[in-house]
Design brief:
mainly alpha; elongated
Length: 148
């Protein structure tokens, strides 16, 4: 007789808090990407001509990496809500997208100078830390049997 499959652990209360905050955070990231890529005049009106030129001049691979970062994080959040282990992989892909985008922005281009120096670097670091937290959190939920 086959043994019944182990039942997943009940979702802890904090999964819902992390999930809602993550959903809102990553929705903002996706909106930023879409508004930038569609050259939305109202959204982009606060940027200088040099900043607009910088954003609109991203090479294709950097645009793809940038788009993958918030989209995979948003999908990772949905997978977290559905309690799927896929959340871990999606958050890891998001981190990879962030790293590639930052390589372009801070190593291969003058993005740091164009975007105002240290505040741009700080914002990028905050985004990365949040992404790393979501990856670690989803891995923890997987180890605890919350994700299946």
């Amino acid at each position: 007789m086959a043994e019944p499959a182990a039942r997943p652990s009940k979702a802890p209360w904090h999964l819902w808090i992390v999930g809602v905050v993550s959903l809102l955070w990553n929705a903002v990231g996706c909106t930023d990407f879409v508004m930038t890529q569609t050259h939305n005049k109202a959204y982009m009106s606060g940027f200088t001509p040099a900043q607009l030129s910088y954003y609109y001049g991203f090479p294709f691979w950097a645009v793809v990496a940038w788009g993958i970062a918030p989209l995979s994080a948003l999908l990772g959040t949905l997978a977290l809500f559905l309690r799927r282990r896929l959340a871990v992989a999606l958050f890891a892909v998001s981190i990879l997208g962030m790293v590639l985008t930052d390589i372009y922005s801070f190593v291969l281009s003058d993005g740091l100078k164009v975007m105002g120096g240290p505040p741009a670097l700080i914002l990028s670091a905050v985004i990365f830390v949040i992404g790393a937290f979501l990856l670690a959190y989803s891995r923890s939920m997987g180890r605890r049997g919350v994700l299946r």
